[in-house]
Amino acid sequence: MIDLREWLDTVDGLGELHRVKAEVDWNEEMAAVSYLAASQEGAPALLFEKVKGYPAGRRVLFNAIGTSLSRIAVAMGMAPGQTAMAMIREARERLKRRIEPVEVAEGEAPVNQNILEGDRVDVTAFPAPKMWPLDGGRYIGTADVIITRNPDTGVLNMGTYRQMIQDSQHVGLYLSPGKDAKLHLQRAWQQGKPLEVAACWGIDPLLLIIGSQGFPKNLCEYEFAGGVKGEPLAVVKGRVTDLLFPAHAEVVAEGIIRPESVRSEGPFGEFTGYYGRPEAETPLMEVQAIHHRNDPILTSALMADYPACEQSLFFSIIRSARIWDDLDRMGIPGIQGVYVHPAAAGGFGMVTVSIEQRFAGHAQQVAALAAQCPGGAYYTKWIVVVDEDVDPSDTDQVIWAMATRCNPIDDIDILRNTWSTWLDPTQNPPEDRPYGSKALINACKEHKYQQIFSRRTTITRGMYQRARERWQELGLAGEPPEPRAFEDFQNLQNMQSVSRRLEEFSGM
Fold first, then answer.
1. Is the bond preceding residue 429 a cis peptide, omega within 30 degrees?
2. Contact at 8 Å (CB) between 425 and 274?
3. How far apart, in whole angstroms, are the C-alpha atoms of residue 84 and residue 261?
4. Cβ atoms within 10 A of the Cβ of 501, count?
5. Which of 338, 269, 352, 347 is CA-nearest to residue 306?
6. What ranges do the domains of the chain cover?
7. How far apart are CA 347 and CA 140, in angstroms?
8. Per-residue pLDDT of the chain in tens (508 residues, 90 and over written 9)
9. Which residues lie below 8 Å from residue 89, measured CB to CB, with a gap of 6+?
């Protein structure tokens, strides 16, 4: 898959694309329709083909991924129909590959079918929506990627940041503390230089998935996108900047942020399901050129409570894979699964890790590292560690483990003054918001008493197989789910024998 249009064709073939042919207003109506539709799990992607006040061909895509694992699979080149945990495992393997992008000539890039410079630049020529009643304006960049360059190292970064239209040639960028574009901007301004920016407003969903995550700052996200795709990403050099941006993007705006150039931006309905920080000064991008394909498609991501929050489910897949990979690279043994819950503030608020406990303090170590590793440090408030017989993606099982294996007075620790965001509604007054806290919850069987911990009620493998074979005969629909754990009498006897031997040695 090379671009958004090919992705749309594939998704349409799966029956997961709805083309809205009736005229819809960009002023809150598109977002309202998307919110209501996406509030039902399994809602299709919505392509608005006729936007009030705009000519035919100026289209807007909402709920591109939504709550569909199949649409994530298509974006990441996986086979549809897999479980979330299977996709997380495959994503981990794909993220281990890095393929550098390939630069194509200006005339070979579809995004250069139309190039507008100087007085012809007008960002309002595209049907950017106003999402929520109290938003500060129209947001053209929500399902986007922003390209910037590290002024010191020259490494390109691809990140996701909201952008509000200020006027026909200016957009305001909200840049969260500690994010790459923010660091690049601060460094450029320290040097008394403007920061070059390329804002991509209609993109292949894979770029949104990759751009939304934190990767090592000495590597470009283009390489990870290529690794997931299994082929290099085609990029093209800008007209007015020295940046490389995706050659198959729908719309790209090039420009600069001059030193100390800011303007009031916001508020904006965010991934938390609340309006973000109160109106504040944010960097102001001066748009100097716009590139766009014929009949361009804007990609818009509604930020809301789950399940209508566009980032929630794909965060569950890609962020889980990132955290798991971080734990592996740190050499932590026994990791059986990692899951970021989509309902927890757009996939930011909670992570569960399943482990096979191998030594004293193992669960506490995993909790602390998952809380602060690069993939999990930003915002995450709740880190839960469970045993290997608990599926971290099954909320019911996780809650069961918390209720039966966690003793709150002993098994909950707190980290204070951690990396957070201006968008956290729990931190007041608002100026306290870049600093957060994290709860580390050990919901594993107590390590030193594992041998005498109450035995879980499970069935044997033999009885499971017998029930499975008779399932249809018994008149039951579908296939029986496979239990996470089975009764193993032999293993129990072996464990008891080892326990007795250890007691004998300890008494010598």
1. yes
2. yes
3. 43
4. 10
5. 347
6. 4-299, 312-449, 461-489+499-506
7. 23
8. 679 999 999 999 999 999 999 999 999 999 999 999 999 989 999 999 999 999 999 999 999 999 999 999 999 999 999 999 999 999 999 999 999 999 999 999 999 999 999 999 999 999 999 999 999 999 998 999 999 999 999 999 999 999 999 999 999 999 988 899 999 999 999 999 999 999 999 999 999 999 999 888 899 999 999 999 999 999 999 999 999 999 999 999 999 999 999 999 999 999 999 998 767 899 999 999 999 999 999 999 999 999 999 999 999 999 999 999 999 999 999 999 999 999 999 899 999 999 999 999 999 999 999 999 999 999 999 999 999 999 999 999 999 999 999 999 999 999 999 988 888 888 888 777 788 999 999 999 998 877 767 778 888 899 999 999 999 988 999 888 888 788 876 555 555 554 555 455 555 4
9. 321
Distance CA 363, CA 19 (A): 48
DSSP-derived pairing of the beta strands 234-237 and 102-103 = parallel
Q: How many residues does the chain have?
A: 508
- Is residue 252 within 8 A of residue 121, CB to CB? The reply is no
DSSP letter string over 112-140?
Answer: GGEEEEGGG--GGGS-PPB-STT-SS-EE
Fold designation for 312-449: UbiD C-terminal domain-like (3.40.1670)
Instruction: Dihedral sign for Cα 231, 160, 257, 201, please.
Output: positive
Contact 206, 228 (CB under 8 A): yes
Strands (E), 399-461: 412-419, 435-443
β-strands 102-103, 280-292: how paired?
A: unpaired
8 Å CB contact between 54 and 297: no
> CA-CA distance, 156 to 244, in Å (whole number)?
8
Angle at 438 between CA 306 and CA 374, to 5 degrees: 85
Q: Mapping DSSP to helix (H, G, I), strand (E, B) and coil, where does residue 211 land?
A: helix
Spatial distance between the Cα atoms of 156 and 237, rounded to a whole number of angstroms: 12
Strand 297-299: give its sheet, edge to edge.
17-20, 45-48, 59-62, 297-299
Instruction: Match 């974006």 to its residue by tokens.
Output: 75
- Helix axis angle for 312-329 and 362-372, nearest 10°, is 120
Q: In whole angstroms, how far apart are CA 478 and each of 359, 469, 471? A: 40, 12, 8
Strand-strand pairing, 297-299 and 59-62: parallel
Architecture per CATH, 4-299: Roll (2.30)
Coil, strand or helix at 64: coil
Contact between residue 218 and residue 157 where contact means Cβ atoms under 8 Å apart: no
Instruction: Evaluate the CA torsion angle 378, 384, 385, 391 in order and state its sign.
Output: negative
Quote the tokens at residue 20. Answer: 């809205």
